[in-house]
User: What shape does this take?
Amino acid sequence: MSGLDMTGLTTGPAQVWGGIRLVPLLRDAPVAGLRLHRDLRGTDGAQEEAEEYEGPCGGVSYVPHAFVADWSGGGGPGASYGTRLGPGGGPAEPVRIPVSAHRRPVRRLRDSGRRGPRRPSRASDRLRFLPLQVALAGYLSLHFRGPSVAWDEWSRSAVRNGLSPREEAAYTGTSVPGLGEALRIFEIHPRQCGVLLYAADALAAAFVVPHPADYRALHGTLVEDLYGELVYQYAYFARPVPAFEARLGDGRHLRSLADLRAAARNAEAAWRRDHDTVLAAGLLTGGYRFERVYTMDGFTVQRFLPGFEPGREQHIGELIRDHKGRTAYLKTFRLSEAQVRRGHLLDALHREDWHPERTAAALGTTAEELVRRITSAGFASLLKHGAQRPQA
Amino acid sequence: MEGGPAVNPVGPVGAEEHAEPEEAVGDTRSDLVAAEDLLLLVNAAITATGQREFRSGAAEQRLSLAFLHEYVQVNHRSLYAAVLALDINDHNAALIAERLLRTAREATPEQKRTEGRLIAARLALLPPQRVYRLFRALRTAGVNNRRTRAVQRDWLAARPDLGLDAVKYRRELKAAVRHAHLPARVLDTGRAGELGDFLFRPGARPRYAHPLLDAHRRAHYEQQAVYELPFTVAEGFAARHGIPRERFLERIAPRMTRLEKLRTAEATGGRTAEQELSELPLTRLALYVLALPRAERAARRTVLTAALRAAARRAAGPAAGTWGRVSAVLDDSYSSYGSGVKRRRPLAVALAAHFLLEALAAAYRPHWTSGLTDPLMAHPVGPTPLGTRILDALADSPARLVIVSDGWDNAPPGLAGEVLRLWRGIPAPGRATAVVHVNPVYDADGFDVRRLAPSVPTVGIRDAEDLAALVEIARFAEGRTRPAELRAYLDRRSERFLLAHERRTHDRRARDRLTHDRSADGERARERDTQEQRARERGKPRGKRNDDASTEGGRG
Assistant: This one.
């Protein structure tokens, strides 16, 4: 239906390490009025001035999907279910899925300062993300209005029994070859608010936030996500990707330093243009279906689905738009082939209101075949015994 | 390196800005290759320390360095030995000495003689713990030829105070003495085997004449004796006696070296006095400043800036103000953090170079990659837009342009190389800028420090104080000088180095003879007293003699 609006974001020069390419996205001015919730930023060791939220009602804060933290409402650590917006100054109150305690915190922010007695680490110092696979299943269930209870049950059984063997393997960012190193040595630009992550020049993830300080806090969490088999294999078999160095030609027409400077600027512009039209084309060209979740203060949380065509680059994700429709926050996942097929199936079911016979007719198969496909896709819990109509 | 039909790995096939230099008579291809290899080794020997860097791990660094050493040693042995005379860092000096001694079989007698002298001269400049580590490495390698033993013997004989070594480096000294088959009398001039007993039979003597050895013996049961020992040894005893740390540090302060004081002052949250700051060399002072949080740097701004400027003036020496118009491009990107084992070292080199160039230049203008305006607040942050900064610096029309960077140009990559390649082709009246790139980081994959452009001489740098000397070496890397000149330069440096060492040895021997004569007089006086005592007591009854004998033994 439409594409992603990346106005306000400029592509910066890429940094390459092995088979991983990281392309920064820079903003001239941070998006006014939207910041990562203060409780989630933790203390990073850097002196942060007290950020004043802008906006008439004290600004808006967001809590990304599948963000695990100890929310102030008590009840232990919980995972946020769906990106939520909240008032700037108030406590974050997302819909919570309780997270069992045996899940290890995957990242711990250091206390600020080395002198003086160590501050006892507050709960708000801990930032964690749920594994992407679970988050992805949560997304799919979100998109198709599966109940949150079903997600909780599924994630619990996934943790207890492991993912069923018919699921494809998922790899944490730490086991994707080269990703951890690439993220570690990446030099974050002062105005950087986002990154596009390529493994062997195939876009694996896009991540955009409204403010550079938010980005610095969340940059390291890219290594804790789970990535699909496609990303892992591409990174594993990749040869070192070229760095796309600037080339200024043979300099015959250069008469002064100003000419040289202009040639340098042209080279940078050429890189931006080439990147947007070639490397990021799969993400930026349209064909997404957006679904509005809710709006607050001019900011809209939306989720988007691709067309689920097998064989093409497909991304699924969540974004927050401002009142002009520009992207303020974005997180995408690259779907692997199996996930595209699952998505296709769920899409068809959703369109036909979860009626098995009608869906089977739309897909061109029989109802038994459809039930088999649903089971093999891992959604057997949605079916009642005897292959009746599943609970909506 | 220019000067031969070599393929340039950096930049396109753009050699048209250089006319091919004429081949001088007698300059064979092998000479050119030898000179090139030697410059690789010199750059590596100045920067590489075998530790983890920002982009490569410790194992890669060590492997790469070991290969480079072996390659140059096998192919150009005499040049390899002559590198000891240059200002390389201690890690590589020890590596070269070890490799020369291990492969003694491959050297001609003439080479062996020269190498022996060079090694002895260089070891005299190394800190003792490194020399002991070298001896241990030779032991592990199973090397024990006559030259190795002679080197160890001469070095130990030249130590000013073996008692201090015995207390501070006891295990290493013991192992070295054993390995080199040194009789203890070689070590102990005039103390009747005391040192041998201390090392090999610790409980045998009731007391020692040397104050440190005796303090070590007493420190096992007496708290007061702990404060007479060197700091590192006293720490262990203090822990054993349970002395609280603050009281211990306060009372041991007179025994600590300057660096130990700096380390412990920061650990206990105290402040280093201005007096101590003014004694530090420039790069170490820069490291100290960068380790302070920015709020504290702002609070102590005047003191720190004054100390940095004073150190820079000291390092510049008589050349202060003679460099004319200078512009510098200084790298304070995120990669200048280095790694956890050498924190902020590239940034410290940049900061120290900033102050040094300020002292050396008549008119100076810095360009930091992050656009920093206040150098005291330097912080490793941001990408490395070297290309745009070099353009800014060239716009000043300086006489000299110094680039201090690790060479990883990434915003956008390769722009710095292109700018440096094309800039010479731009017609401009009256511009003659000499560009030099100093690089504090060794790149394990390239066996060299990372270069920006083949036309710009690149040298490795470890301490910013050597900047002026390194710019001198840099002209060899520019391709305008011949390999014969490089050899002549090396020969000159070796001769000067050996001469300085011999002069130092001569002075030391003269000093030792003087004190030995004095102490020998004292020995003779004591001998006379003992003999008189014995003559007196021969007349006394037996029981009384035993008493006198015991007091005599106690006095001895």
Observations:
- Chain A touches chain B at residues 12-13, 15-16, 47, 113-116, 185, 187-190, 243-248, 250-251, 254-257, 259-261, 264, 267-268, 271 (CB under 8 Å).
- Chain A has eleven helices and 18 strands.
